[in-house]
Amino acid sequence: MTAAGPGAGRENHARWLIRGVAIPGEDEPGSRVTDILLGGGTITAIGSGLDHSGARVLDADGLIALPGLVDLHTHLREPGREDAETVETGTAAAALGGYTAVHAMANTDPVADTAGVVEQVWRLGRTAGHCDVQPVGAVTVGLAGARLAELGTMADSAARVRVFSDDGRCVSDPLLMRRALEYVKAFDGVIAQHAQDPRLTEGAQLNEGEMSARLGLAGWPAVAEEAIIARDCLLAAHVGSALHICHVSTAGSAEIIRWAKSKGWRVTAEVTPHHLLLTDEFAAAYDPVFKVNPPLRTEADVAELRRALADGTIDCVATDHAPHPAEAKETEWAEAAFGMTGLETALRVVHRAMVDTGLLDWHGVADRMSVRPARIGRLAGHGAPLAVGGPANLTLYDPAAPAEAVTPAGASKSRNTPFAGMELPGRVLATFLRGVPTVLDGKLA
Amino acid sequence: MKRHLISAADLSRADALLILDTAEELASLADRPIKKLPTLRGRTVVNLFYEDSTRTRISFEAAAKRLSADVINFSAKGSSVAKGESLKDTALTLEAMGADAVVIRHGASGAAHRLAGWVRGSVLNAGDGTHEHPTQALLDAFTIRRRLAGGVRGGGQPPRDRGVPGGRPPGLTPRGAGLDGIRVTIVGDVLHSRVARSNVLLLSTLGAEVTLAAPPTLLPLAVGSWPCTVSYDLDGELPKSDVVMMLRVQQERMTAAYFPSVREYSRRYGLDASRMARLPEHAIVMHPGPMNRGVEIAAEVADSVRSTIVEQVANGVTTRMAVLYLLLGGTEFPATELPAVAR
Lengths: 445, 343
Description:
The structure holds 2 protein chains of 2 kinds. By secondary structure, chain A is of the alpha/beta class. Chain A folds into 2 domains: 16-65 and 390-444, Urease, subunit C, domain 1; 68-376, TIM Barrel, CATH 3.20.20.140. In chain A, 27% of the residues lie in helices and 20% in strands. Chain A contains 11 helices and 21 strands. Chain A has helices at residues 87-96, 115-128, 151-156, 174-183, 210-215, 222-239, 251-262, 273-277, 299-310, 346-355, 362-376; strands spanning 16-23, 32-39, 42-47, 56-59, 64-67, 69-74, 99-104, 132-135, 163-164, 190-193, 206-207, 219-220, 243-245, 267-271, 316-317, 394-398, 404-405, 423-424, 427-433, 436-440, 443-444. A 5-stranded antiparallel β-sheet of chain A has the order 5-16-19-20-21, with helices on one face. Chain A has a 5-stranded parallel β-sheet with strand order 9-10-13-14-15. Chain A has a 4-stranded mixed β-sheet with strand order 3-2-1-4, with no helix packed on it. In chain A, helix 1 packs across helix 2, helix 4 packs across helix 6 and helix 6 (222-239) packs parallel to helix 7. Chain A is globular. Chain B is of the alpha/beta class. In chain B, strands 7-6-5-8-9 form a 5-stranded parallel β-sheet. Chain B has a 4-stranded parallel β-sheet with strand order 2-1-3-4. In chain B, helix 2 links the parallel strand 1 and strand 2 (70-75). In chain B, helix 1 crosses helix 5, helix 2 packs across helix 12 (309-328) and helix 5 (134-148) packs across helix 7 (194-205). Chain A binds chain B through residues 205, 208-210, 212-219, 221, 285-286, 327, 330-335, and chain B through 86-88, 106, 108-111, 113-114, 117, 128-132, 194, 197, 220-223, 225-226.
């Protein structure tokens, strides 16, 4: 992806001086307040009194600079469901949320299971130019779970696919999962598993517990996720390959991943913003905006997921941004589609769930939302700490912005945010992709 | 009372007693040659039925008509629903027609909740998926109270020693009485039963001691958070039960491995004559219908003097009249003024 330029027509030679910004370091709260000079797509200087003749100046007093955020789990819906989202609208939403790269999930129509489809998505991303789009390839043909898709061909394509996932469905056949893990070793690939035992979740609607019992909604047991994660950790260890667990949602899952990591196995994991903040109690009025896969869990799960993200057991935050048109949610609960949007609110949710609670500092947020997801996605040019000579991908965030209620209207085509009306702190003010602003003053540049 | 009746949890003890007492007043109407009251004249009640349920629909229809409401029956079959119209669009249509109350039966849990967000009229939940069926619980409570709660006002003895099998003597209407201390055992497929959910909530609100008896597979995993006790052993519960309420068991549960066979289910949890003999003298047997004779209940039990099954149907009309009256007629009329209205 290093070769990918920002969108056609964007000026890449303008220099920018970001003045008086704080770069969160490991030794927080001693964030270094400094100036950052961007030029030619890289960070050319950091310090005070920089020679910035000819550069545009952005006064960043009170703001913090994070390496551009990287999402490992985005549904851009194109091709096939352009009524819900397009690469253009989805990446605009991503930029507004502070992202400079997103991984586009494979469950489009047609499925991204061939070099042709992943290259199409990759090119659409380059054209849109709001952020880099790294396609994820399907593990199995048509996500059907029966035979392997041409993983090597997708890896060798212009899209250089490294992450493979049947997300939305679980690769439940243990033999197929073993083979997939084994096969991608040849090109340093990783299998991102949507951990959901299909038999244990037939017709399932909501986390199996007090709420599902009270609401009369078919229960979605934690064990349906945990059993697959345990199995896949063992498989990854057996064949010596890399496994990534999508959207971890239960305390038990975190415990299994902690154990697998303690063995030195190559297992990584993500958690969504909504699983860090919301519980199944939100389903009480049967509003399907809270219907998601995996389901919202309990307060105890939320607490444990936060702890696991803080101690690094869970490597990163990934949005699982899943846009849906209004009619897919204005229905009975059982009829409604699974999923929530998340790109535009992710950083603010993490601010509330992790920073305000003292579990992570901003350096930690940069690590969990940029550095580690880029590393897991094998994404060159992203996730590098802000340093001279590094790529000028960065996000300017105002952590002191007063908490404001989330409005559902944004750049995404869809409005299915579970955070609508919820007061969240902070504000993304600017996003730079290879030195070019994609967002300025909180608006698309 | 709230504007809607969606869950039995919406009802406080006072609300529930008001409904039962109102139903008692209205019951006296059933014995008169002219059964109709003018109370809801000019009001429109829509029966919106997405599932076949002749008995519940007819019960609500009779209740609304006896209160002089205009009744529109909207069944999913042969309507625009069959053409794929969403519940929301149907709701907006009913709203435009000026429905004062919508009685909804739907296969999806929460459908009544959703509907209440889209219409201005009152929503009455007539059964939503595997969630609740609050008027069934009200009619069950009404039936139990008529049969067993008479002794409560007399004080002293627990109701199980004072019950009147085969019906209460005329003139002893238990107004104001709850179901305190009455022991109700609900048997069968609790997991999928909206009747069980509503009854657990309402009967416990009214002071009854509820026990659920079922195989563990047919109980919600989190049943421990409910206001009731749980037993896997029906035989152990029977001698302590004033009321046994049998739930319908659907045979297709067997294929989903909830139990090995209908025969085994029936052997362990079915109510036959020999099990009925373990009940106290005064105990009654209830079933919300429709029954699977020979599965959860034997014919000789269903047809016995202890069975209140037919009585439950009659009480259903009365109880639903009370609910419609209170939701639509307004709570500005205290129950004590009812006889005047009824006259």
